[in-house]
């Protein structure tokens, strides 16, 4: 089981490596679309990366309500517990 801190670290690494986001911009409160400037295609890519890392199937509907980095951490944490 991964902690919230580990999930956040994993997510931060993906955002920096895959989407060239400045690590200083990544916080739990950061909006994926406004603060981090991701678009819907990026969001799909992010879901795919998270699926690869967690080995869990992520339903796209689960990510429709995701707006912030914290929302993603919560979603991944929920997946890891199922």
What does this structure look like?
- With 82 residues, the chain is mainly alpha-helical.
- 59% of the residues lie in helices and 0% in strands.
- It has helices spanning 4-19, 40-54, 60-63, 69-81.
- The mean pLDDT is 90.
Sheet/helix structural class: mainly alpha
Radius of gyration equals 11 Å
What is the count of β-strands? Answer: 0
Which residue ranges are poorly predicted, with pLDDT under 50 across at least 5 consecutive positions?
none
- Percentage of β-strand residues: under 5%
How would you sum up the major sheet? none
Helix content: 55-70%
pLDDT averaged over residues: 90
SSE string, helix = H, strand = E? HHHH
Separate helix tally: 4
Shape designation? globular
CA distance, first residue to last residue: 11 Å
Which descriptors would you attach to this protein?
82 residues, mainly alpha, globular
What's the short version?
By secondary structure, this protein is mainly α.
Question: What topology does this entry show?
Answer:
Blueprint (H helix, E strand, L loop, with lengths): L3 H16 L20 H15 L5 H4 L5 H13 L1
């Amino acid at each position: 089981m991964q902690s919230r801190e580990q999930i956040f670290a994993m997510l931060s690494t993906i955002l920096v490596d895959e989407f060239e986001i400045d690590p200083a911009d990544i916080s739990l409160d950061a909006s994926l679309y406004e603060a981090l400037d991701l678009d819907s295609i990026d969001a799909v890519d992010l879901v795919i990366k998270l699926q690869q890392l967690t080995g869990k199937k992520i339903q796209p509907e689960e990510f429709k309500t995701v707006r912030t980095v914290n929302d993603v951490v919560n979603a991944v944490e929920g997946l890891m517990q199922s």
